[in-house]
Design brief:
- By secondary structure, this protein is an alpha+beta fold.
- The strands form 5 sheets. It has a 6-stranded mixed beta sheet with strand order 1-18-22-21-20-19, with no helix packed on it. A 6-stranded antiparallel beta barrel has the order 4-13-16-15-14-17. The protein has a 4-stranded mixed beta sheet with strand order 23-2-3-24, with no helix packed on it.
- Helix 1 runs antiparallel to helix 2.
Length: about 350
């Protein structure tokens, strides 16, 4: 069942004042608690061990891609680079010596002054020197890479959600010291009972209500549905929020209303039972829909789908998403009667 908007008649004068409230706030077909999370989040750590030299951001700071977050003391790594450079220079000199000796032994062998075994030993020594040179180059590359990794940079634009490091402390390679969350892009993590999750579908709309954030009611779409049930036979489901209002933060508790399909019955909208006016020979029931263009209510025939959830009943014909219907005092209304919405 989907949702229509409703209105409540608060006065029964010739011009009743009706207060309007979206039915998505009252009861969707299925409602679940969830937690806001950043769409993209990353646990950051240094790839090398060392002593923290500087920490240039704090929790809550906004950073851009490539911005330095913290540094390690580079001195040990610079010394490693210098040592590797010295090894490389020595390997190059040794290779040059072996090349000269190989050239000399080749000429002697060609003129019959030395045995072939001596020439072969010169070839082997030259090849070994080449391998040592390649190894020295690799060691220098690793040392330079480690030096570069003493600067921890933000992999994307976001907000520092966690800082667990201070200057002058020793840290190990891979030790998480920051958590970076993408800014402005959020999702909702839900745990849906396995009895319901089979009726969800990727791309289905979700309405998210965060009571602590003004203007949320936000909308989203289901992007992931888990394949395994966990605790309490609940399946993890993720919905991406399409537009995030200001003030929405990771970790906030929200209520998500999800549209589920019901293959065993008709599909429609859930409306309060008190909104239904008993029918006559022309229809099984009526609701009074608000005509915003003319400021009146229209008596509209509806057809029920038979499903009842609490004080709500499924309506399969006569209402559409976004309709405003009177939900109290309907016995005092008549077709075409002028009304006002509360606050107007």
């Amino acid at each position: 069942m989907k949702a229509a908007s409703i209105a409540t008649v608060s006065e029964t004068t010739s011009d009743p004042v009706i207060s309007c409230k979206n039915m998505e706030d009252l009861s969707f077909f299925d409602r679940h608690s969830g937690t806001i999370a950043a769409t993209n989040t990353s646990a950051l750590s240094f790839a090398v061990s060392g002593t923290v030299r500087t920490v240039v951001v704090k929790k809550g700071d906004r950073v851009v891609k490539g911005q330095v977050l913290a540094t390690l003391d580079p001195k040990p790594f610079k010394l490693n680079v210098q040592a590797a450079q010295a090894e490389l220079a020595a390997a190059r000199a040794e290779l040059n010596n072996k090349r000269l000796d190989l050239d000399r032994q080749r000429k002697l062998f060609e003129h019959g002054w030395v045995a072939k075994v001596r020439y072969d030993r010169a070839v082997t020594a030259f090849e070994a020197a080449e391998q040592e040179l390649n190894l020295a180059r690799a060691r220098l590359g690793l040392a330079e890479r480690d030096l570069a990794k003493t600067r921890l940079k933000a992999p994307f634009k976001g907000v520092v959600a966690l800082r667990d490091v201070e200057p002058f402390v020793e840290i190990a390679s891979g030790q998480t010291i920051f958590q970076l969350d993408s800014e402005g892009a959020f999702k909702v993590d839900l745990s849906i009972p396995d009895s319901v999750v089979g009726r969800l579908s990727i791309g289905a709309p979700v309405t998210i209500n965060a009571s602590t954030v003004a203007g949320c009611g936000c909308t989203g779409r289901i992007t992931e549905i888990g394949a395994t049930a966990g605790a309490a036979n609940a399946v993890p489901v993720t919905a991406a929020i399409l537009e995030s209002p200001d003030g929405l933060l990771p970790g906030m508790a929200v209520e998500a209303s999800v549209i589920v399909s019901d293959d065993d019955g008709p599909r429609g909208f859930l409306v309060p039972l008190v909104a239904i006016v008993p029918g006559d020979e022309k229809a099984r029931g009526y609701v009074f829909k608000y005509d915003a263009a003319n400021g009146v209510v229209r008596k509209t025939p509806v057809r029920g789908g038979g499903s009842v959830t609490g004080n709500l009943i499924g309506v399969t014909e006569g209402v559409e998403a976004g309709d405003i219907v009177a939900a109290a005092g309907v016995s005092f209304l008549r077709d075409g009667q002028p009304v006002k919405l509360m606050g107007e």
